[in-house]
């Protein structure tokens, strides 16, 4: 039941996110609230069960599955001109956050831009850069793969993916080194003469 609870929690998070969309009327908002309550009751979960959260929002997991399993690289519908304009504004806000080294806010801005325009490889690649700065290398690699899936000629995505894989490789080497060094250090500390 642990996996089901986590999935239920992810669905509830997704539905909660949907309640914040301004395009919903009051009936739709109420329907979402009822659905959330039903799921929370059924799975015996609440919004305070943060330990059930997954690393990626359900929408991202779903899009990832579409891109990988259905060979879907670009959605069939184009975003509206307003959505494209707002997505560009969000990308620029994300870029400013990157300059300020506020990487979490940058990820949020790029994610919102992606939500508005799934067809723009740059947004995924920029979010990959922010994820890399946060040490979220799995997410960064996934975003690079999505960017390449949308635009196979987008060289920056390949470069970023290479950089991310290099960071993972170095991180693994450090972890291996520490796993060897730490037990030796602890053993040395045990036998050290205390004044």
Short description:
The chain is mainly α and about 200 residues long.
Describe this structure in words.
This protein is mostly helical. It has two domains: 1-54, Single alpha-helices involved in coiled-coils or other helix-helix interfaces (Up-down Bundle), CATH 1.20.5.420; 57-195, Tetratricopeptide repeat domain (Serine Threonine Protein Phosphatase 5, Tetratricopeptide repeat), CATH 1.25.40. The protein has helices spanning 2-19, 26-43, 58-69, 81-99, 103-116, 121-134, 137-150, 155-191. α5 runs antiparallel to α6 (121-134), α6 runs parallel beside α8 and α7 packs antiparallel against α8. The longest helix is centred in the C-terminal third of the chain and has 37 residues, at 155-191. The mean pLDDT is 80.
Distance between the termini: 54 Å
Number of domains: 2
SSE string, helices as H and strands as E: HHHHHHHH
Number of E strands? 0
Helical residues, percent: over 70%
Task: Briefly note the structural class of the backbone.
Answer: mainly alpha
Radius of gyration: 21 Å
Portion in strands: under 5%
Q: Can you tag this structure with a few keywords?
A:
195 residues, mainly alpha, Single alpha-helices involved in coiled-coils or other helix-helix interfaces, Serine Threonine Protein Phosphatase 5, Tetratricopeptide repeat, 2 domains, 8 helices, globular
């Amino acid at each position: 039941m642990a996996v089901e609870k986590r999935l239920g929690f992810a669905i509830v998070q997704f539905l909660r996110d949907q309640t914040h969309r301004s395009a919903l009327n009051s009936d739709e908002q109420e329907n979402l609230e009822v659905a959330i309550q039903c799921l929370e009751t059924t799975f015996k979960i609440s919004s305070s069960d943060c330990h059930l959260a997954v690393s990626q929002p359900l929408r991202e997991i779903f899009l990832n599955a579409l891109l990988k399993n259905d060979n879907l690289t670009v959605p069939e519908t184009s975003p509206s001109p307003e959505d494209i304009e707002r997505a560009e504004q969000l990308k620029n806000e994300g870029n400013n956050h990157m300059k300020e080294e506020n990487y979490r806010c940058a990820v949020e801005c790029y994610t919102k831009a992606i939500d508005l325009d799934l067809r723009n490889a740059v947004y995924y690649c920029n979010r990959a850069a922010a994820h890399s700065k946060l040490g979220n290398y799995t997410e960064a690699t996934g975003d690079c793969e999505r960017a390449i899936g949308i635009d196979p000629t987008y060289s920056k995505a390949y470069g970023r993916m290479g950089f991310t894989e290099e960071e993972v490789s170095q991180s693994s080497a450090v972890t291996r080194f520490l796993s060897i060094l730490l037990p030796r250090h602890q053993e040395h500390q045990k036998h050290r003469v205390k004044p």
